[in-house]
Amino acid sequence: MAVVFLTAPVQLSPTYDGTYVDVDVSANVPSGATGIILELFNNTIFENNSVSIRNNGSTDDLPTGTRERSHTWFFVGVDSNRVFETKVTLLSTIKFWLYGYFNSESVFLTNSVDSGITSDFTWTDVNISATTGADTATAAIGYFNQTGTSGGLWGVRKNGSTDTMGENAKAGGGFIIGCDGSEIFEGYTADDTTRKIKIVGYMTAGVTADTNATDVSLGSTGSYIDLAALPSGALGGIYYTSPNGSNSFNWRKNGDSTDRYQRANNNSTFGVVECDASQLVEGKIVNTAVDFFQIGYFQATGRRRTSLIC
Q: Does 183 map to a domain?
């Protein structure tokens, strides 16, 4: 499997001392994994606490703020010992939840590569073929980094898409976005040159990326409701939410009891969620101004599921 979801999310407990520290996930991630799926969760009324996440051995320093009572997803590489690094300042109330891991179909870079996008409101092609070398990427794995505190716009989409996804943002987050046959996706930033779109890795198989997103928004609030089913054989979905302000939401596997229902850390938030055997994911929203979009899904690649080490 290109992506394997854990049976239940595992809370990680790194040291919060304002320096980069190693986080060992080998108890939950098997040998051969190349990266992990993390949910960052800030369940306090305090915001703009600085968080940085990077591959072990990286020289990256990509801090981002965290909004009050918020959550978002990150995708980060691990080394051969299944270690990554993080730096958290100010609050130990920042929580990390490990949701799953990537196998060899995903390559994570030790140091990120800048997309080259500047703050000009223009959808711009980002060609990652020089980064992938002999590989052919079907999706880019990235990180939206913001060091400023003012609001502004950013977005990513598959090349050739007519989607207009992108909203005001005061914090960062991860994303997985499809590439076309020439390994190109599109992105933009606006309003503030401190906003950067970084490439941290790519996928070569096990992912199907839609050119245009499918609207899977919900029509009622306050409870978990099934989203439109993913295609047959899907293991999980790649989603984007447009919360239209400080509105709470959550996604989870159909039938799961996990309830991390909070605001979007970034007003443009991407996440990946496991589905059940009927290819269903649940969502919950605080009001119908929150929109959900399906932008792709993961599927089997002919590999056997690796047993977890627990």
A: yes
Pairwise CA distance, residues 246 & 226, whole Å: 23
pLDDT tens digits, one per residue of 72-94: 889 999 999 999 999 987 656 77
Query: In angstroms, what CA-CA distances link 283 with 114, 258, 275?
Result: 33, 11, 12
Specify the pTM.
0.91
CB 25 within 8 A of CB 81: no
Q: Which domain holds residue 213?
A: 3-299
- Quick check: is 61 in a domain? yes
Give the chain's domain count: 1
Between CA 3 and CA 36 the distance in angstroms is 9
CA nearest 150: which of 197, 102, 214, 193? 193
The answer to whether position 53 is within a domain reads yes
Residue 310 domain flag = no
Sign of CA dihedral 72, 77, 81, 85: negative
Dihedral of CA 159/182/172/297: which sign?
Answer: positive
